[in-house]
Design a protein that fits this description.
With 183 residues, the protein is mostly helical. It has 7 helices and 2 strands, in the order αββαααααα. Helices cover 66% and strands 3% of the residues. Strands 1-2 form a two-stranded antiparallel ribbon.
């Protein structure tokens, strides 16, 4: 099969798959273990794993970012709160969608707004999941504050990381490694 213009070769695909696995692992660790703060009575917890999902979303092509988010978030819940795993896999994939990896800047206008939209999607998704899991849509309202704290903290860390990565030109090195830019 001939390689189409703009598609990575076998080496590029291997690098993208490996990078996806590394992001999935970082998402798992940041979600399950680093700053993992339980809240509420229904098994929810505040974490900053979404920061890594946002970074995966701006570095990796969408299918790879979706995989990293689903795998990383799913494994974290499998390790800490298994009842949430099915909802988490779906919600974490949805929070990737507002981002774009198609810009040389990590903090393009779209990517500046994306964590805000992702936070709303995450809060709404977990509200709905909690309502379904526990059979009441009244009690999940108490969990919205925790969702907003988690999303806001992850957004703030994403903005800080993106500024650091851009100023140090690491973002361009990663884009070259992933086959988006010529050396």
């Amino acid at each position: 099969m001939m390689q189409q213009r703009g598609e990575p070769g076998m080496h590029g695909k291997t690098i993208r798959i490996v990078t996806t696995g590394i992001f999935a692992a970082m998402i798992t660790v940041m979600t399950a273990y680093i700053c993992h703060i339980p809240y509420g009575a229904n098994g929810g917890y505040i974490h900053f794993g979404d920061t890594m999902i946002y970074l995966a979303a701006v570095f990796l092509p969408r299918p790879y970012a979706l995989a990293a988010a689903a795998i990383g978030g799913g494994i974290a819940d499998l390790l800490t709160a298994p009842m949430w795993m099915p909802a988490t896999v779906i919600i974490k994939m949805l929070i990737v969608l507002p981002f774009s990896e198609k810009n040389n800047r990590l903090l393009s206008t779209r990517n500046i707004m994306a964590p805000i939209l992702s936070g709303v999607v995450s809060a709404a998704g977990y509200y709905a999941a909690e309502g379904v899991i526990f059979g009441s849509f009244a009690t999940p309202a108490a969990s919205l504050a925790g969702s907003l704290i988690q999303s806001g903290g992850s957004a703030a860390l994403f903005y800080i990381a993106a500024v650091i990565l851009e100023r140090s030109h690491v973002n361009m090195q990663v884009r070259r490694l992933l086959g988006f830019e010529k050396a």
